[in-house]
Model the fold of this input.
Amino acid sequence: MNDPAPLSAAKIIPVVQEQEDTLYAVRQRIYPRAVSGRFATWRWALVWITQAVFYGLCWFDWNGRQAVLFHLVERKFYIFGWVFWPQDVFFLTLILLISAFSLFLFTAVAGRLWCGYACPQTVYTEIFMWIEEKIEGDRPKRMKLDQQPKSARKFRIKATKHAAWIAVGLWTGFTFVGYFTPIRELAGAVGNWTLGPWETFWILFYGFATYGNAGFMREQVCKYMCPYARFQGVMFDPDTLTITYDTERGQPRGARNKRLDYKAAGLGDCVDCGICVQVCPTGIDIRDGLQYECIGCAACIDACDQVMDKMSYPKGLIRYSTENAIKEHWGRREILRHLMRPRTLVYTSILSVVVVGFIYGLTTRIPLRVDVIRDRATLAREVEDGKIENVFRLQVTNTAEETRRFALGVSGLDKIDLASDRMVEVPPASTRSVIARVVAPGDSAGHGSHPIFFEVKATEHQDVFVREKASFLLP
Done:
């Protein structure tokens, strides 16, 4: 039998193209319409609060240094009156647990509140869209401008917008790096053109990431890059508050005159104006039901309520509600009563325990750390009067922001004593290495290893005391 003739390239290419068209969706440019209302006010309040904290906090001083600084070179984290060291990873773990369970709890109760109001992607997209609106105009003007052919006027407007976006992005990158390198030193280095390579890289990287994500990618980040958008579905249940379109009340939808008796005409409350779609930053139609692209910003609620006001219809056609509430026609009291359910109670209990543990750990934290390292060169040796000497190195870390003197002592064996300095002074937020020569009579215990304890106590703060275990060798 003859082999079939090979397919020509002309026959193969259309097949490949057809597969690509089915696998990849072409992005449709979204032009969100500006909206006002109570939820828009809340969003902008969160924008102002979060950015005031982010841009301003790094310029505050505390005890003569930056109030919040994650100093990577010195390997110290300064947070107001606290100084954290790499050994304090326990507190970092608790912070991550608090963040995770807070996110779980908020999502189980009210959906994607974080995404809609405080997520950096949402916040900076709001800022960049505001700049875009101020420079290019409202939604119709922006759409018309993009459809116009190239011209000097269009180039000027677009260049002005992008220059403003880049300025915000670079300032954001500079501020971000200012939390890891002292911001005043960083500002001086920028002004003197002496910025280091790593600082330069991270300012540019974070700045242009902000520029690209908030200026161009926008909803693409939420739809395709953010993992939270994908796993949120498993955290919802029928009693989770989400942005919901009341299908029973709104359908069938259709345009009508305000004076029309629309109920007699068989119409629902939805006038099919499409404004809820126009204001959506991800371009979805909430009337099609809950979708993973919905970030919970509630812009559609503000828009729909304004239309309902103009039509003299009751507000709430689109509102925060739950699946069960819509189905059972619950009021606010029933909705609130069902918010406290096993899932939210478990999240609340775990979160409360972790928060209490974190607060307890901070309040009882001793601003002193001692690490004992044995001198490996000489494990044990005999000195005068038949005594045995072991040599240790003590790493005394003063985590307080004041110079402190510490008294050293040792116990654990009969007549054990220090044959070296008994006092050490450590500068604020610093570590001092001390050689501790420990001697004990050769007959104070049997041969072998014996537990002893180094005792380090602040001379002016008796409650600052650490007792560290070590081993004393008797040959």
